[in-house]
Design brief:
single chain, 2 helices, five-stranded mixed β-sheet, about 180 residues, about 15% helix, alpha+beta
Amino acid sequence: MTAQAIHVPPAAERITVLQGQALVSASPREEFTTVLGSCVATCLFDPEARVGGMNHFLLAEPPASATGFGVDEHYGVFLMELLINQMLAQGAIKSRLRAHLYGGANMRQGMAPIGSRNAEFARRFLERERIVLIRDDLGGNNARRVDFRPVEGRVRCRSVAPAMAPAIRPARRPLTGGEVELF
């Protein structure tokens, strides 16, 4: 018998995407992971450029009554633009972007439906930007763990115990420095 070499890909480096973050990678060795309750994570990838990214936003948009609104990384309106800009900077082309959306659960009975608002915002944003949504797992009342291989655009999403979901802690901390180009 002749022995054959079997190619075993190296283990992925797991990188946690926290609330208020958007991360992008073109490395086949990286995997992004996050746990969501009412928050939403957007996973974007360009299958030709082989680059992808994930964000994790806490709230969709600042309230209409907010005055003096600066850039706040907890809002989807900022993190969606940031994720797209980072993707384009790494060689992605907007017309080729494909998306997955996860989270948006309404975790506690009797509270405002923050998760539903987040999910609806994310869907509308992708539609408005003409980014193809290929899969979503939004709503309900279960927390989710999402693992995303950005280069391949592969996602695994599974339900987890509600206690695993991060607490909702909106903090108004305007970012200082950096630029975001709004489309």
